[in-house]
Amino acid sequence: MEPRRAPRTVIDPKVRHVGFFAPGAPPERSVSGPPDPVAAASSSSPPASDLSPSGNSLSPVMIPPPRHSSADHVLLSSSSRVVPFPPVPASPLRRDSLAIAVGGSYNNPSEYVPAMSTTVSSSYAGKMVGNAEFADDARGSSVKVAAASSSFPSGGFDLTAVKASSVPASGLTTVSVVKTLPPGITETIVEKVGGSVEVQNDRPASSKPLKEKTSKAERRALQEAQRAAKAAAKAEGIKVPASSGVVAPPNAKPTKATKPTSQKNDNTSVAAFEKKGGDRPSDKDRKKDAPHPRMQYDDKTRVEKAKRRAVMKQTEARNRVELFRHLPQYEHGTQLPDLESKFFQLDPVHPAVYKVGLQYLSGNISGGNARCISMLEAFQEAIKDYSTPAEKNLSRDLTAKISSFVSFLNECRPLSISMGNAIRFLKSHIAKLPLTLSESEAKASLRSAIEHFINEKIVLADKVIVNHAVTKIRDGDVLLTYGSSSAVEMILLYAHEIGKQFRVVVVDSRPKLEGQLLLRRLVGKGLSCTYTHINAISYIMHEVTRIFLGASSVLANGTVYSRVGTACVAMVAHEFRVPVLVCCEAYKFHERVQLDSICSNELGDPDILSEVPCREDINYLDGCTNSENLQLLNLIYDATPSDYVSMIVTDYGMVPPTSVPVIVREYRREHIWV
Amino acid sequence: MWRRSASFILDQRCQHDAASSPKPETLYLSPPQTESSCMAAFADPFNQNPHPNPNISAYYQTRAAHTGVVTNDWLAQAQAAVGRHPDDIPAPEADLGESDSGKPFSVTQEFNNWRKQPDLAEAVAAIRALAAVIRASEATTMMELEIELKKASDSLKSWDTTSISLKAGCDLFMRYVTRTSALEYEDFNSAKSRLIERAEKFGEISYKARRIIAMLSQDFIFDGCTILVHGFSRVVLEVLKTAAQNKKLFRVLCTEGRPDRTGLRFSNELAKLDVPVKLLIDSAVAYSMDEVDMVFVGADGVVESGGIINMMGTYQIALVAHSMNKPVYVAAESYKFARLYPLDQKDMAPALRPIDFGVSIPSKVEVETSARDYTPPQYLTLLFTDLGVLTPSVVSDELIQLYL
Prior knowledge:
Chain A: One of its GO terms (cellular component) is cytosol. By secondary structure, chain A is of the alpha/beta class. Chain A is 49% helix and 7% strand.
């Protein structure tokens, strides 16, 4: 597992991986061939690097990762022969950029040496910049350890064996051993790290004189790195007491012990933050650090920060797909009882918000409109019970309060764009409240504003959409819909009510099978329906005359962001020249532009993909899911290019996808969004 | 064949009247009406579409009479005889006095009068007729006036439900005129005069639109180019006329324009300007597309997607041009922008038109009589409008700003 990560340590911070990766490969190889000291010693030789998948898959966009081979030889001899990067001749420049990469904000050292962030003193973090050897070794050793651990059956974890394999490695290797070992043995090794790290700190001195020739970008990167290091040092200073606590009690986390393999190294630090849950930061702090909706989850600094503030302990999933690593993904189903038990400790979160959050988490509330409405209603509730603390300003304090709610909800499930828009509306309304209003008046005004928003932008908008869309249904039509969209359902029911003769094809897909609910309601009302899965889309498309789709959001370039599979349906429809109508309320429009489904998406529970409920006999993937070579990808959304969309039906009428920016512009200017 | 119908003759007679006397009072000799409201006037069979034939759209019933190949020349003579440019005819003002003095005022009638001028677009005629409604109105409150205007525009729209520019023109007029601060004036008369002023202005803008478009499109016509034209569009004619006046050297290919031979008329007009012109049968478009540099068409209506609804055959020409990478330019006044969004060809009210095949068709054979088709925006290059030279996607922008 860890070797997958390792390559990122030495990548230039400005470069992202583009293209497809097979990140799981290294462990497999190390399983097949035991670490060979000779090969490892000559790790810079082509054959060795050929083995490395990352080396192979270097796409043209990627700058070959810098690597300082000469200085590493000694140390590498102890690591496995799997070297993730091709050899690069040592040059002063490269060496320099390598140093930057290690300390840079994009590649936070804590990712690789998590124990360090909690156990190592702050002075160490300051020295990280330029400590190229350290990172290299950490990587090399982590490869080795992972290799050792992956050779064991996934369930049983032979501690002695792991220890044995890690001990012969250099003192440094223990740093990353922490990541893969079950918590039971972390403490001892972590202590070792503390010692060994100190020993290594004098190394970077050799790299310093080589810095004269630096490009602008590099200087900038260096600057950033220094800044990050400083910030890290600061953070370390704060954290020290809490983190030292982690090391001491060995069995403080019972949940971890139950499923050691799924644990991430991050858990130690998460647990640490949890421990100081008593001194939970104030609302103000929470607001400052509320995770940005588009936070990049491969940016470790940010993630650490967010986690420190998090109410909930989320376990990160293990085998994340490389391309989607910037998205948050957590183990599903583990947080609910945990969160429930913490109910009484969470005073900043209003019970109504808390309830909604739990419903998001359990999936009881899904669908853009439903989530948005329930969130707004919870906020209404919270505002009703709110009273401004002494010496505080209502608008500021309430905004901070709402922000803390939002960050809580975001932890439960990433916010949808519609919710983001609703929150923006609410906050701007709070900001615009006249100072002369008394508290009760202000609260009443806010609550009525929310009520108004729900009624006008969601309920009424849906009615208008229904009226528009129904004009496009003719007698004898065959309408196809995908998944379950509330707007489309209303359209179909209304068209049936006013006596149009048409047939509906409900297309559905695993694993959520939301279409069945829709189907049930439609059949219950007497519509004639056909139900099929998305696999049959190209067959069924022949007979279809119109496609009605819902959307989670429509972006400024006309891209429709919707339930995964929508793009596929729209593409097939386009190919068959069937008009595609997207029904979306204007409050879900967003001025962002998105070209693919990668940059911004949501990851669902990957395990659902592998298991088929109630069919034990076809659960072929049983047991494979823990394999390092298997990454399951369960995307929730995808982006449909505007070319495939014939029309967007909104509360402002029927517009072509090219007019979305116009609506966004006019909407902002004329209406309630400030 | 249908041109020989009674309606044609009747229309021709009306035209005689209209041309010989600027005040076509004879047309007002409708049966006595009980009230002067426009709706009542409309309910009157005489003011309705004279021959409510369900198979032929009103537009094609009367328009052919007004602008038939024969009629055009004849009308020019008639105008020469009158000695005045038809646009200068102060007919509405004259009518105004009469309707004020108790005579029933009919917006449809007014509209038909205006429409008889060959240069005046249907929508502009409607706009002027609606302006006349305001002038002739006896309403005493703003609300009353607005209701009256609404009724008038509704009756105009129902005169030909298939006409897009008529509907769009009426809607735009209502928007333009009533969306004004005039309604906040305390004095009704000043508010009304303000409305009239606005209505006149809008009529003026609409009337000038064609000139503006002609000026805008000059940059796109280069010396030595070959232009393919489909249908008889007065805007396109104006564009080419201006280009010819600017001493541009270009060649025009005209499609025949079956069934009403609009291409023949167009080539006739161009020949008068000494522009080299070549006639094609409608099916020779793809054959001659390789020598064409650009396609110029007018539009019956510009819809919200940025596509156009135009005379039958435009779609296939656009398809051919698109596949051969030739630009397709549409010249259309902004009053043709309609809040319509057809998804496909059948997704609009069809305008029907009889087709004369020259031989009798067996009764079992069905004939497609639709007169228009819809060209989706992806096949159009640019739209020349009085708002400027627009890409198809801007149409929706303009419409949203107008109507929201």
